[in-house]
Amino acid sequence: MFGLNRKQPARISLLDGPLCPNDMLEQAVALPIDAPDDICVAPDGSLLVSSGKRVLRLRDWQSDSLTVISEFNHEVTALACRADGVIAVGLNGGGIRLITQEGDAAPGWEGQENGVQEATACTFASDGTLLVADAGGIDDQASRLHDLYSETGNGQLIRMTETGDRSVIASGLRLPYGVIETAAKEVLVCESWSARISQLSSDAPPKAVLQDAPGYPARIHALSGGGYILSLFARRDPLIEFVLSEPAFMNRMKAEIDPAHWIAPRFAARADYRVPIQMGAARLFGDIKPWAPSFSYGLVVILDKNFLPLASAQSRANGTRHGITAALEWRGELIAISKGSNELLKVTAMDQLI
Q: In this predicted model, what pLDDT tens digit does every residue of 111-123 receive, in sequence order?
């Protein structure tokens, strides 16, 4: 089964230097949030958080200060806020909605709810247009895993205007999960399954500014002093990369096994006897070893302006705060979303991290 038609396994950056394993995410102060996914900062300085089908506002780090801005018929999958207060909300299978800070439909944007299959990230550009990462119909965990092992790019990056115009900036992307416009007005997109961040241009092919990441990149946000905060929702396990290099085994796994039990990245650890490599020396005296093989992990990386790592915050194999899908700077603190533990994390002061 192994060895025939083998492809060269991909390179994986090591967790070393600024990426040296730590338990900073496990030590973070947390607020429980039901089904969180994305966060952004509003013009008034409050924090907007997606929670299932709702968009919440957090004014202070107190659970009783959470208020509901709006509720939708679909799960909220992406958030962005413009300087004038307009909030872009990506919905699971429901396109994009634009609302005000009070939750009403934003004037001039009423027709923008269609045309996007699955928004995974969005951001407002400096010219007021909206950049949307569209995963191309990947709307649940099973479809994400099929997309990983199909090794095709179904995602695209779309620019939307207030008048309803749409243009595709890039297509053929492998699970685009983060997008940002830099201070130089360059557009960057995070491709999870390609483990890279690419700079996009209308007159040139994508240029990788970060590649061979140690995990699967999700959202990316700017640092106030320059640089970026990158969230990675899971580590790239060597066993997963090995399966990707073995087409015969990969195709048999896809044909015969439920995706829930595939050798594949996940947002959270599973206590299930059917988990692959259950007997792979993952436990010692009943406890999961922090260095054990793990398909879920918590990882936030601080990058400088040249995309070199400066620091990281992690939750290791024996932790619970995995599946970090978004992280940003808020009032001088590093804030992150953990889908694995359903929490909003206040990790540490940024000046203590870098």
A: 555 678 899 999 9
Cα–Cα distance measured from residue 310 to residue 126, given in angstroms and rounded to the nearest whole number: 27
Place of tokens 């990281």: 312
pLDDT digit string (tens) for 140-160? 788 888 899 987 888 999 999
Q: Three-class SS of residue 256?
A: helix
Domain annotation for the chain: domains and CATH numbers: 1-32+223-228+235-354 (no CATH), 34-212 (2.120.10.30)
**Contact present, 264 and 295 (Cβ < 8 Å):** yes
Task: State percent of the chain over pLDDT 70.
Answer: 90
On whether the CB atoms of residues 159 and 130 are closer than 8 A, the answer is: yes
Q: Return all residues near 207 (Cβ < 8 A) that are at least 6 apart.
A: 198, 199, 201
Per residue, the 3-state secondary structure of the chain, as one string, reads CCCCCCCCCCCCCCCCHHHCCCCCCCCCEEEECCCEEEEEECCCCCEEEEECCEEEEECCCCHHHEEEEEECCCCEEEEEECCCCCEEEEECCCEEEEECCCCCECCCCCCCCCCCCCEEEEEECCCCCEEEEECCCCCCHHHHHHHHHHCCCCEEEEEECCCCCEEEEEEEECCEEEEEECCCCCEEEEECCCCEEEEEECCEEEEEEECCCCEEEEEEEECCCCCEEEEEEEECCHHHHHHHCCHHHHHHHHHHCCHHHCCCCCCCCCCCCCCCCCCCCCEECCEECCCCCCCCCEEEEEECCCCCEEEEEEECCCCCCCCEEEEEEECCEEEEEECCCCEEEEEEEHHHHC
Spatial CA neighbour of 308 closest among 6, 18, 8: 18
pLDDT at res. 95: 86
Cβ neighbours of residue 198 closer than 8 Å, sequence gap 6 or more: 170, 188, 189, 191, 206, 207, 208, 209
Question: Structure tokens of 331?
Answer: 């009032």
> Quick one: pLDDT at residue 1?
47
